[in-house]
């Protein structure tokens, strides 16, 4: 293979690979209530207490709620969101979010 063909192949490969993007999801809280602490949890672990966070892959079965002192550890007794954030692999798949109220 000549040097020019090799460089062309290398440049083409670099362009193709640079177009591939990894899955990331940014979460930013906007607490307009003036009180409480936003909480983001997944698998029993606290992932954020109000600060923005970026995930370098899917976020599966996470919950978020505003901890005002009256919520349980997993948002019981408060309005919360349940979310899965992931890039779709087929039509109709991917992220989903719902709003729930779990009684104490």
From TrEMBL:
Presence of keyword Signal: yes
Region (Disordered): 84-104
Keyword entries, A-Z: Signal
Domain of life: Eukaryota
Signal peptide: 1-22
Protein name as catalogued: Uncharacterized protein
Organism listed in the record: Phlebiopsis gigantea (strain 11061_1 CR5-6) (White-rot fungus)
């Amino acid at each position: 293979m000549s040097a020019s063909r090799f460089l062309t192949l290398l440049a083409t490969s670099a362009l193709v690979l640079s177009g591939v993007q990894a899955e990331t999801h940014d979460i930013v809280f906007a607490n307009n209530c003036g009180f409480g602490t936003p909480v983001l949890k997944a698998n029993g672990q606290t992932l954020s207490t109000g600060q923005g966070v970026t995930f370098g892959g899917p976020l599966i079965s996470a919950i978020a709620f505003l901890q005002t002192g009256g919520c349980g550890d997993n948002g019981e007794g408060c309005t919360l969101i349940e979310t899965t954030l992931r890039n779709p692999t087929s039509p109709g798949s991917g992220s989903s979010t719902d709003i729930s109220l779990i009684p104490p």
